[in-house]
Each structure stands twice: as structure tokens, then as C-alpha cells.
Amino acid sequence: MLQLLQSSPLSFVIFAGIIGLIVGSFLNVVIHRLPKMMEREWQTQCAELNGHTPTPSPSYNLLAPRSACPHCSHAITATENIPVLSYLLLRGKCTGCGAAISPRYPIVEAVSGILSAYAAWHFGFGIAAIAAIAFVWALIALTCIDFDTQLLPDSITQPLLWTGLLLNLYATYTSLPNALIGAVAGYLILWSVYWLFKLVTGKEGMGYGDFKLLAAIGAWLGWTMLPLVILLSSVVGAVVGITLIIFTKHGRNIPIPFGPYLAGGGLIALFWGQALTQSYLQLLAAP
Asked: How sure is the predictor about 283, in pLDDT bands with cuts at 50, 70 and 90?
């Protein structure tokens, strides 16, 4: 199997796309359950700090209980859990009660599959492609969780940071010194912005999870990619924010998560960062 994937680029791309679809289905579970797991853990810790014995509760994690319809508790069968295809065959409705299924489920699966296949094509068979696919999966999960809850879980951002440094021990994407400086600079840049904004306005402009996410991106791609990531995420974030305020009457006092735009900037830098940076430098050097 490995020989086939290594010798046939098309087979590797198709295989990565299929795995991406399957993992995309699991990412939907992560996106839905991880914030709830974090909330339960916080409640348990608060109870313990107050000297109370936490109330026993049924097991709830990424594997249990079995996925079910939130409206009628209909257990999702294997045939109803085929990425994208099941949603189309079910016409976006639960077989138990007919309630609408959120289209985000097949969208996450499709995006995971497409980006996984693209990463396989872009890097070719090897550790760079395999790691890039995992990077894509992590950023998809973080993007959706941040949109839903304005949280960027440490259980994803911190392993992402250490994985980037370990990969670059062998210069998978950049040299180790660049990766190390990227991790430190990524954290300190947004940390400085946070405190400057707070000193000027008395308000918090972003969360600590954003610092950690940019640090992780810096660990993967190096400090030279950070200006591009920050520029892209800031521009897209500003455009989306202004659009929401103008067209959807999104209150100016309602915070807009920044993590998804950092994730988008990180993905663009992963695939096209070198080309974009070179083009920018050539424009500056042009007479």
C-alpha cells in the first residue's frame, strides 16, 4: 500500500482526500463536544475548589456517548454517517424526527477532504504532506470552535505548537531557529497588541488562545511567515467584521473571533507563503 501511494501521486491524493472526508466527520464531533467537555471540567474544578464533591455524570468524551440527533435522540447509524453522501441522501433531515441537519456538517467534511487532497498534491508523498494534512485538520477544528464559543482550546493549540517545533528539527518546513523564533514572536506580537489595546481602551481586544495559535503557526512556518499571516488575517477579519456590522446589524460591542482568520492566514502561508512573499519583495524591488 505504501509503495503504491509513494509511486502514484494520484493514488496518494485520492487516498488523502478520502481520509480527509472521514476525519472531517470526526472533526464535527470534536467541534461539538470539546467545548462541552471543557465546560464540564471547569465545573468540576470549581466544585472541588469550593469543597464540594462533584456530582457524578455519565461518561462524555469524544468517543462516548454515541452520536445522536439532538432533537429526538435517534442514534446515528453507520449508513447515516457516511461523509457528505449521507447528508445528501437524507436530504439534510433526521430519519427519526425529520428535523433539519445543519449544513455545516457536510461542509466541514468536504473542506477537510478537499484540503487534505490538496496538501497531498502540493507536497507530494512524505512527512511534509502528512504533517500538513494534520495541520489542516487542527485549524478546521479550531476555526469552528472559535466561531461557536470564542475559545481556542489548549488541548489543540499547545500540541500543535510542540509538533511544529519537532517537525522542524529536520527542517520540514523551515529551519529550527526560524521555527523557535516564530513560536516566541508569534506569541509576543499578539500579547503586545493585547496589552497595548487594553491600556489604551481598558478593554480586552482578543483572547490568550489567539496568542497561542499564532505561536503554533510560527512554530510550523517560521518567523518569516508571520507578517504575511498577520496581514492576511487582519485584512480578512476587518472586511468580515465591517460586513457583519453593515449588513447583518452585528452589534459593535459583540466580539468577533480572530482565531478563524489566523487559521486562514496560516493555511494560505502553508501552501503559498513563499510565492506570495517573493512576489511582494519583487514588487518592492521594482523601479
From this structure: confident
Average pLDDT over residues 29-56: 88
Cell numbers standing for residue 249 = 446589524
Which cell numbers in the block locate residue 285? 524591488
What CA–CA distance (Å, rounded) separates 97 from 245?
36
CA distance 41 to 151: 15
Close Cβ partners of 69 (under 8 Å, ≥ 6 residues apart): 76, 94, 96, 97, 99
Shortest CA distance to 152 belongs to which of 207, 91, 189, 90?
207
Give start and end residues of each alpha helix (H) in the chain: 2-7, 9-49, 85-89, 104-123, 127-149, 154-167, 176-201, 208-221, 226-247, 259-285
Query: What is the spatial distance between Cα 60 and Cα 284, in angstroms, rounded to a whole number?
Result: 54
Q: Which amino acid is located at 246 in the chain?
A: I
Residue with cell 506570495: 276
CA atoms within 13 A on the CB side of 68: 10
Answer for the pair 214, 184: CB distance below 8 angstroms, yes or no.
no
- Tell me the pLDDT tens digit for each residue of 126-178: 999 999 999 999 999 999 999 999 999 999 999 999 999 999 999 999 999 99
What Å distances lie between residue 13 and 7, 115, 183, CA to CA?
12, 10, 30
**Quick one: DSSP state of residue 101?**
P
Amino acid present at 183: A
What is the number of residues in the chain? 287
Q: Are 183 and 219 in contact (CB under 8 A)?
A: yes
Dihedrals φ, ψ of 75, to 5°?
A: -65, 130
Distance separating alpha carbons of residues 164 and 170, to the nearest angstrom: 11
Best CA proximity match to 173, nearest among 140, 213, 131:
131
pTM of the model: 0.93
pLDDT at position 130, please? 96
Amino acid at 133: I
